[in-house]
Design a protein that fits this description.
This protein is α/β, with parallel strands linked by helices. It has 2 domains: 252 residues, Aldehyde Dehydrogenase, Chain A, domain 1 (3-Layer(aba) Sandwich), CATH 3.40.605.10; 182 residues, 3-Layer(aba) Sandwich (Aldehyde Dehydrogenase, Chain A, domain 2). The chain contains 15 helices and 18 strands. The strands form 4 sheets. Strands 12-13-14-11-10-15-16 form a 7-stranded mixed sheet, sandwiched between helices. Strand 10, helix 9 and strand 11 form a beta-alpha-beta unit. The longest helix has 25 residues. It is globular and about 65 Å long.
């Protein structure tokens, strides 16, 4: 396992893979730890999770720097990610007991209710783009419910994966409650198949999700999948254009555009198209790209050179099919996997910019002539993770968000973001199941019906 600094191309560290025997030993340890952890009180679990939240606050700078070195994420964003992990840990430390309380049901019996029990060791297959947050949004609710966690991080962020295991240990979680296994992608299936794993969650591409779901499904193991997205942002004729341009630009540039819920396709009504495009393009053009350890940098490199090359090919193929480059679109000279803010206009079906997820700082802009056309274009995608609509008529925006857009999370006059208090997940090729909120903690528990006559 090699960690390479994507800003410089320099090798950071090499980590040995866990052998099959080491995987067996780790999962045996997880099974034993679960037998004890499941019997602990919510008060004890909460104490450990609050300690972990405090440790994240104390070590923010160390872990943010590690994350920036391994992923190229601007240091300010990396710091915010660690802080968000502390938030979700503290949130479930407080709310888990309420969320998992017995739920009475009137059924004409002396007593009937739903009781919640943990399932066991849960495998988390996690990507490189948010190497701390995507782990903690799984681990905080899963462990507070009494499960134990086994992390398989993306190979390029092995250092972050090891740091997370160390954090749980330092917070007082017993050995085996949270472990990190370093294995290449082609060995993840062996862990999914292992009898020591009872369920799995994956954040990543739809290809990876289908592979894990197929294996887990053949063994009747529960899965939760959070996959890709091609989030549409609708700018209607009555939108506040300044707000829409600023919000759309901010969403597209988060983590160098490498976010499943970043704005990807901008569907703009012709009445405000020119004004919005001018403001939007200006904002992207002034985004500072450079050293991700510089506090002033807002756009770092992509996480790997091959990801940068694939993104550029999608741009070239879209242009060959008729799209026009309004900004950027050229690979810069020099080291690092950098790619400039890029805006493509005249985007139509059949182009990668229309049909595929653009995982980087490239915006696909589509002009429409009506609200109905905007909604139709927004839903014309295999994905269904997030969506946003901009309009000064908030009742209209809410109606579109709630009833018309095909996505797991729809925001009005704001960019899509995850929040521990709100359910997070998608539909269609963006996956299934939910993370965060009370729905997230219920994914990996047995909702047992108990009846007393």
């Amino acid at each position: 396992m090699q960690s390479i600094n994507p800003a410089t191309g320099e090798l950071i560290a090499v980590y040995p893979d866990h052998t099959p025997a080491e995987v067996d030993a780790a999962l045996e340890l997880a099974t034993g730890a679960f037998a004890d952890w499941r019997r602990t009180s919510f008060a004890e679990r909460s104490a450990r999770m609050n300690t972990l939240a405090g440790l994240l606050d104390e070590r923010t700078e160390d872990w943010a720097r590690l994350m920036t070195l391994e992923t190229g994420k601007p240091i300010a964003e990396a710091r915010a990610e660690i802080e968000k992990c502390a938030w979700v840990s503290g949130y479930y430390a407080v709310e888990a007991e309420r969320m998992l309380a017995d739920r009475p049901i009137e059924a004409g019996r002396t007593r009937s209710y739903v009781h919640h029990e943990p399932l066991g060791p849960v495998l988390a297959v996690m990507p490189w783009n948010f190497p701390f947050w995507q782990v903690f949004r799984f681990a905080a609710p899963a462990l507070m419910a009494g499960n134990v966690g086994v992390l398989s991080p993306a190979p390029t962020v092995s250092g972050c994966g090891i740091a997370i295991e160390d954090a749980f240990a330092a917070a007082g979680f017993a050995e085996g409650i949270f472990q990190t296994l370093l294995v290449p992608d082609d060995r993840v299936e062996e862990i999914v198949r292992h009898p020591g794993v009872v369920a799995a969650t994956l954040t990543g591409s739809d290809r990876a999700g289908r592979a894990v779901a197929t294996t887990a499904g053949s063994l009747l193991k529960k899965t939760v999948l959070e996959l890709g997205g091609s989030d549409p942002y609708l700018v209607l004729a009555d939108a506040d254009v300044e707000l829409a341009a600023a919000t759309c630009a901010a969403s597209r540039m988060i983590n160098a555009g490498q976010s499943c819920i970043a704005a990807k396709r901008f569907i703009v009504h012709e009445d405000v198209y020119d004004e919005w495009l001018g403001k939007f393009t200006t904002r992207l053009a002034t985004t500072r790209m450079g050293d991700p350890l510089d506090e002033e940098t807002r756009l770092g490199p992509l996480a790997r050179h091959d990801l940068r090359d694939r993104l550029h090919q999608q741009v070239l193929d879209s242009v060959a099919a008729g799209a026009t480059v309004a900004l950027g679109g050229e690979v810069p000279d020099g080291p690092g996997a950098f790619y400039p803010p890029t805006v493509l206009v005249d985007v139509t079906p059949g182009m990668p910019a229309y049909d595929e997820e653009l995982f980087g700082p490239v915006a696909a802009v589509i002009k429409v002539g009506s609200e109905e056309e905007a909604i139709a274009v927004a839903n014309d995608t295999a994905f269904g993770l997030g969506a946003a609509v901009f309009t000064t008529d908030t009742a209209r925006g809410e109606r579109i968000a709630a009833e018309r857009l095909e996505a797991g999370a729809c925001f009005v006059n704001a960019f899509v973001a995850s929040d521990p208090r709100l359910p997070f997940g998608g539909i269609k090729a963006s996956g299934y199941g939910r993370e965060l909120s009370d729905l997230g903690i219920l994914e990996f528990v047995n909702q047992k019906t108990v009846v007393v006559d």
